[in-house]
# Entry
Amino acid sequence: MRLSVIGCGYLGAVHAAAMASIGHDVVGIDVDAEKVDALSRGLAPFFEPDLQKLLEAGAASGRLHFTTDIAAAAGADVHFLAVGTPQQRGAHAADLTYVDEAVEALIPHLRPGDVVAGKSTVPVGTAARLAPLVEATGAQLAWNPEFLREGWAVKDTIEPDRLVIGVGPDASAAVSALRRVYAPAVAAGTPFIVTDWATAELVKVAANAFLATKISFINAMAEIAEVTGADVTQLADALGHDARIGRRFLGAGIGFGGGCLPKDIRAFAARAEELGRGDSVAFLREVDAINLRRRDRAVELVVEGLGGSVFEKRVTLLGAAFKPYSDDIRDSPALDVAARLRGLGADVTVTDPAALDNARRQHPQLSYVDDRDEAIRGADAIVLVTEWDAYRRELTPEHASTLTDGRVVVDGRNGWDAAGWRAAGWTYLGMGRP
Ligand code: UDX
# Structure
């Protein structure tokens, strides 16, 4: 099929490349000429495993093109909207400017029978608002949220765990078009859920709200563990054996960040307020607050570990990205902790295998060192904030001891073996661990 993808950020670039890889003829469209240029040359503009390979293969096959010209969308059977919906400045609601602009720009190029499929995460009610504009051209509007995780985006796009298609009344043509788009996944038995627009929009925000709540739940337990001497990691293991609960997303630590969970729960709460149902998701404000408190706690632990003050102490942060296998620093708890320590007068050094260029741009006041061991050399305290393998698995206390005389580690991801560090003579401080 011929497809257009409007917006070539994390979501759109991966979607375009993945759709070309399963045999479609795809044009990706973005207003950012630099991004389009990189993608056209087969270069991934951000770190995402396997994306580079797919871009190269797409360019070689002649089935994947990128342009800044929205007119290139004309003639596609399905037009995917994959633009960002960031948090509004100074408010919690989502900023829909890019979605509105994309639809407006696309309208003149739609033909009767085309399908517009929204993938962006939007407040419930957005599709119903946009539908008359799209339908006036004879095209149909579907909402088809994505659930991809950064670092797994290619796999999550090609082999999703479910496909959700929200449509308006009489939209069977849109459903069959999307069934054809996703034919390989459908043939593999992927659940294909056809529903209305509002439900499809809600599935996405409800999923993210649930995941955020699960993380904040265990982080709230970490706060209780801290005043009772309990160990939240053992608690999580024990809870996780209950199949109804499950162990995933019960990792206590400095909490969630990134371009999705924080802004999505805030936008959801803001939308619920508008709908007169603020009380129904009032708990999301608590989820957000617990999450942010854990960053304070990590800072407190470093202060405590260094005897009450970090002033002029050398503190090395292992990690800048909001999670491993990503160079994304949007709302990164790691960098937030780094910046706060710097604010307290610490001499902060940050290292990360992928995110340093992005981090430098956002926090020029911090010092950055590419090499892990160089970053650790001479540190008074080491803080694990992003659980890359190079830190969590591969850095041993014995090796760290050869790099510095400092003997304090703060494990912001509960990724290390406390007993091992202690046995090697280190003061180990975890999150919600004795
Ligand atoms: C998330 C959703 O998982 C995905 O389905 C949605 O489409 C977009 O938002 P992503 O932002 O890529 O994906 O990251 P995810 O892997 O969900 O992690 C989010 C944050 O939670 C990270 O900062 C991570 O470190 C943190 N986290 C995750 C924890 O603190 N504890 C955990 O147990 C799991």
Observations:
- The chain has 18 helices and 14 strands.
- Residues 195-434 form a domain with the Rossmann fold fold (CATH 3.40.50.720).
- Residues 197-228 form the longest helix (32 residues).
